[in-house]
C-alpha cells in the first residue's frame, strides 16, 4: 500500500452497511446537506460528515462553532411513525452519543445525558444533538445532526463546554469517533425498533444529569425552578414546582445545580 492509500485507509471511516457516507472537507451545515439530498430522494442511512462547518446550527436557532478537529455529522432517518413519536429519536441519539463518548475514556468518567439532547462530561457540555423532523405523506423524515467537541470547545456559551482531548480521552480522531458513533447509533436504533421507547427512556434516565435535583428550565417567556422528577412516555420533562404542581416541559434549556426552589419571570 502506498503512503496516500495508507492515509486514505486510516482516515476514511469504516461503517456498517446501513450507512451511505458522504465525507466532505467543509460545508455550511451537514444537516443542510442532508436536507437537500433528502428532498432529492436520498434514502434512510445517508450520513453526511464534514471536517468543518461554516454555518453550523444548534438548537433554538443558536450558532454551533465548527472549526476543524471536532466531529460534525447528520444522519437521515425515515421512520414510519408520526412526527410526535419521531421526537423519540432525539433520545435514541442521546443514549448512542453518550455510550460512544463514554467508550472513548480508558478510565471511568461520568458521561451524562442532559435534557433534552445534550451530553455532559462532568458538568460541561461535550456534544449536542439537533433533531429536525418533517411530516411526509408516509411517516416522518428525521435529520439527526450531531456535534461532538473532540479537540476544541467554545469559551463563551450559556452552558460551560468541554472537549474530549482536554478530558483525557483515548482518541480524538474524527474518523475513528465517527466509526464508534455509527455503531452505537445503529445499536440503539435497533433497541428502539424492537423494544420501543420504554427501553430508551429507562437507559436515558439511568444516565440523566440532575435527576431528582433542583434545576432551572429557561422557557421563551419565563424561567422555572423545580425538582427534575423524570421524563414522561413522550420524553417531556416533568418538573415538580415548589407549590406542588407538576409542570410538563416540551422545549426549553435546562441548567443544573440550582440551589433554591423558586419561580421567576
Ligand atoms: C445543540 O446542542 O444546540 C445541537 C448542536 C448540533 C450541532 C450539529 S453539528 C452537525 C449538525 N450540523 C449542524 O449544523 N448542526 C448539527
Short description:
The chain has 265 residues and is an alpha+beta fold. 27% of the residues lie in helices and 29% in strands.
Task: Count the beta strands.
Answer: 12
CATH class of the largest domain: Alpha Beta
Average pLDDT number: 92
Q: Strands across the major sheet, in which order?
A: 1-2-3-7-6-5-4
Detail the poorly predicted runs.
Answer: 260-265
- CATH superfamily membership of the largest domain: Bira Bifunctional Protein, Domain 2
Shape: globular
CATH-assigned fold name of the largest domain: BirA Bifunctional Protein, domain 2
Radius of gyration: 18 Å
Number of helices: 6
Instruction: Identify every distinct bound molecule in the structure, by name, code or SMILES.
Output: biotin
Query: Roughly how many Å apart are the termini?
Result: 64 Å
N-to-C SSE string, H for helix and E for strand: HEHEEHHEEEEHHEEEEE
CATH architectural category of the largest domain? 2-Layer Sandwich
